Each structure stands twice: as structure tokens, then as C-alpha cells.
Amino acid sequence: MTVFQAAPMRKGIFVVVGQDENGLVGTVIAAKEGNVLSHVHRGPLGGALARGKQASEESGFEGYYEIEGVAEIKAVKPAEYAEATQEIAHQTSALQHKAGSRWGFNPQYGPEQFAAMPAAQAHVSRLSKLSDTLQRALAL
Question: To the nearest 10°, the Cα dihedral for 4, 30, 16, 95?
Fold first, then answer.
């Protein structure tokens, strides 16, 4: 495969988690049509998660975004953990109803709500995985 035949990448908003000399950071990247990438934000992870949600809403992705680089998290400082988990808890709480997990199955849900559930559940799962990884890294 040549450079000119590269497969198109997915469109969406991505929060890439990393660590540098300042600690845990998140970089928000928007991937648009035609493999066009734009850097949206880079900063502490809690702020990057909030900015990722905002960029996703502005781009029509309903506040959902991919989270990459979670497996590379080695150690987390207590202040970084607190900031990131506060934002994770805020976003997860806001998604509980859409994901159908706050009260369980509701026969009043319409077809649109049922159709939207898998995306909300997948995003809650991504946030939970990040939270679990941060918890384990805090203990190191």
C-alpha cells in the first residue's frame, strides 16, 4: 500500500491520553472528512475530557468521543486522579438516563431512545475503563 492508497480513517473526536513531564495530559483531536486532523485542545486530563465532550457536541457527535492511550497510563498523582475522575463522574451521571442504566428498562422509551442507547452505553463503558485504569495507576 502506498501513501496515496492509505485507508480512510474514522471521523470523530478523539481524546488521546498521555503523560509528560507535567503529568497526565489529554489531547483532543478532531478527525474530519478526507483524513483531515485538527488539534482542538491539550491540557490536564480532566479539562481534556470536558473539551472532548464539548467538541463532540459542536461537531454533531452528541457528546461522544473515543478515548485512546489508556493502556499506556503508568502512574497517576492524587490531584490528577481527583480532577479526571470528577469529570468522568459528571459525564457518566449525565449519560445514565440515555444509557438506560439509571432506572433500567423503561417501557415508555420510544424507538429513538432505544436506538440511541448503544452509543450512550459504549461511551459509559469507555469512561468506566478510563476510571478503572486511573484507579489502578493511583495505587502504584
Answer: -140
Phi, psi at residue 21, to the nearest 5°? Answer: -60, -20
Mean predicted confidence (pLDDT) in 53-72: 93
The residues near 117 (Cβ < 8 Å, ≥ 6 apart) are 98, 99, 100
pLDDT tens string 14-57: 999 999 888 899 999 998 776 778 888 999 999 999 999 999 99
Q: For the residues of 77-110, what is the DSSP string, one character each?
A: -HHHHHHHHHHHHHHHHHHHHHHT-SS---TT--
Residues 6+ apart with CB under 8 A from 27: 15, 16, 18, 39, 41, 42, 48
* Residue ranges making up the domain that contains 26: 3-138
Beta-bridge partners for 20: 23
Alpha-carbon distance of 111 to 6, in angstroms, equals 38
Q: What pLDDT sits at residue 3?
A: 42
Q: How many domains does the chain have?
A: 1
